TrEMBL record:
Superkingdom of origin: Eukaryota
InterPro entries tied to this protein: ALG11, ALG11_N, Glyco_trans_1
Keywords assigned by UniProt, alphabetized: Endoplasmic reticulum, Glycosyltransferase, Membrane, Transferase, Transmembrane, Transmembrane helix
Pathway: Protein modification; protein glycosylation
Main function: GDP-Man:Man(3)GlcNAc(2)-PP-Dol alpha-1,2-mannosyltransferase that operates in the biosynthetic pathway of dolichol-linked oligosaccharides, the glycan precursors employed in protein asparagine (N)-glycosylation. The assembly of dolichol-linked oligosaccharides begins on the cytosolic side of the endoplasmic reticulum membrane and finishes in its lumen. The sequential addition of sugars to dolichol pyrophosphate produces dolichol-linked oligosaccharides containing fourteen sugars, including two GlcNAcs, nine mannoses and three glucoses.
Keyword hit for Chloroplast: no
Keyword Transmembrane helix set for record: yes
Protein name per UniProt: GDP-Man:Man(3)GlcNAc(2)-PP-Dol alpha-1,2-mannosyltransferase
EC top class, as a word: transferase
Subcellular location(s) per record: Endoplasmic reticulum membrane
Amino acid sequence: MIGQSLGSIYLCWEALSKFTPSYYFDTSGYAFTCPLARIFGCKVVCYTHYPTISLDMTSRVRDRNSMYNNDASISRSGWLSQCKIIYYTFFSWMYGFAGSCADLAMVNSSWTQSHIERLWRIPKRTKRVYPPCDTSVLPALPLERPAKPPICMSVAQFRSEKAHPLQLEAFSVAIRKLDPNLPRPKLQFVGSCRNQWDEERLQKLKDKAVELKVDEDVQFYKNVMYRDLMSVLGDAIIGMHSMTDEHFGISVVEYMAAGAIPIAHNSAGPKMDIVLEEDGQKTGFLAQNVEEFADAILKVLRMPETERLKMAAAARKRASRFSDQRFYEDFKAAIRLILNHDSR
């Protein structure tokens, strides 16, 4: 992380030496460029999607939990874990100092805001601006579903931190517990592969489906066109999301906008911002492990049609809170604070 941060400083210095703007706007998460931009006399504005380091990352190392930011070889070693905690603590201090140089820090979710406020310590200059989600086309899809087996789906890149195996296991458990009088559902994975490692993860998922004996009920779509994604999404009645600490969760908003009931991981963006009640009506379910995901799937499949449509309508209404138009309005309101201050 330190190497990447030093590289971003050099890149910023090279750019600012050729042209120095009045406003420096970082949307890539390169907080270490903020002090340099201030030295060049710029007003510094950031839009942070995900903190470079979070307090959760340090906690996982301290608790010696093996996850995407903490390799098993390190979590098994007390000495290596202690060294990594020192490294993370030092980096957190540097990250906090760099970020505090921002004149305005916009963040994309309540989860990101909580971490940025604790690390950068500029709460009065930190504003939450939800990211733009294209919900304009999705509401045109009918809430009513055709008379065929209900479809659960997952939309995401085939990356390790997305926890796709958990979804397969939960689907397998739900299938085994499903009432015999209910139609057998299908699970569709729609995602993209960036490289060889993603391809290998996709193949492991296919092998996992065979191992769980649900391969005939699971379909995989790789690198599909947007219009095809919309068609698949239009048939789904459930949308699954299982990434721990997803900073926001645009795919969850897309599920809701399309009328699919979301079953999302009980953490970060989905928990704090998205899958919340709308006008006193539940908009979906939150889960954390295989059993909870399986139970949520069964609840939706067993739900009376009128109740499901009522929940889907509430979810669609909540999704409108994260539209492109809402982003434009909130973004302008936040940036106006800097522009108005400079015009005085």
